[in-house]
Amino acid sequence: MKIRVGTFNLFQFVEPPYSWYEKKDKFNQEQWEEKKDWIKKQITKMNCDVIGFQEVFSRNALKDLVKELGFNYFETVDIPKVDKKNNLIYISTTVALASKHPISNIKEVKVHVPSLKKHHYKGHFKFARIPVKADITFDNNKSVTFYICHLKSNRENEFEYIFNKTHTLEQKLLQVNKALEGNYSNSLRQRLCEASSLFFDIKKQKDKPSILLCDLNDREFSITIDALTNNKYHDNNRKESYALIDAYHQHKKKVYNPHPEQKEIKRTPTSYFIGKGNVLDYVFVSNSFSKKNPNKIAQVSNYEIFNEHIEEHPDGSILKSDHAQVVCELEFL
Q: What is the pTM of this model?
């Protein structure tokens, strides 16, 4: 049996007459229908059993849309807030989980208080978007815990270090700790607290199969990924071992007409900022799906990026999305 799971940032899914953040930012009815039609076509292409959505303002509209496509199960754990002075303006957004298979044990992920202290977070903390946690049972009676998240963005364009695969965890921590102590990367501080809270919740699952569908708002090789996955980030006495694995590295990449001097396959961006491509959207899987685990219950058989729309318009079209959609196929053994 195979299942397909995906992540989809909808880019301001706001049903008229509502606006997002500013009164002027809203769809007319014709635009709204066009956006919904594109989303339906994209979901059909993705051909998923489970999808995690980000930037969900109009929950009921999305629930109706996905139900038309066979997703009979739909959950959120939060509702978007509206402006106190104008209840037609949304000032916050949520994430959502849609499935063609039964969902149970729906919960919100709680804040891990010791992680706030570790990152010197001051004041009242809350997730930028509360993550969804839920179990889904498939036709083979296998149950998997799914997490959907959309971590804090760097909307203020604060300075943040960019790392690559040559940087060790120690090097990253040295640089980032300076930034946090200097108090000039507060969005990153919140993102690390959010990622750490997810890490400790997923750790509590122990051997329960888990999958995270997410927009991390951070790049490949970022310290956010270490906070989310790496035991050593949270305990320096531990060896580097991982609660979650990036599913991208679990499948065999296909290369079409490779350049003779090409040494490795370049990862496809899922978002662009000022013309530069970044990977922000991911599927992470627990050890139950690791190709190195002799007791795995399933393995990654494919990993796809649906990015035609951002190749055409790198800054994104409000009637489509400014993110690529990521789909991971898993084959049960």
A: 0.96
Q: Give the containing element (helix H, strand E) for 27.
A: none
DSSP assignment string, 104-169: EEEEEPPP-HHHHHHTT--S----SSPPEEEEEE-TTS-EEEEEEEEPPP-TT--------TT--H
Mean pLDDT of all residues belonging to the chain: 94
- Number of helices (H), then strands (E), belonging to the chain: the values are 8, 16
pLDDT in tens, 87-99: 999 999 999 999 9
Confirm if 209 and 144 have CB atoms less than 8 A apart: yes
Q: What is the CA radius of gyration of the chain?
A: 19
Rounded to 5°, the CA angle 159-164-167 comes to 95
Between CA 229 and CA 231 the distance in angstroms is 7
The residues that bridge with 284 in the sheet, in sequence order, are 212, 246
SS3 35: helix
Burial 176-189 (b: 16+ CB within 10 A, else e): beebbeeeebbbbb
Give the number of residues written for the chain.
333
Please write the tens of the pLDDT for every residue from 31-74: 999 999 999 999 999 999 999 999 999 999 999 999 999 999 99
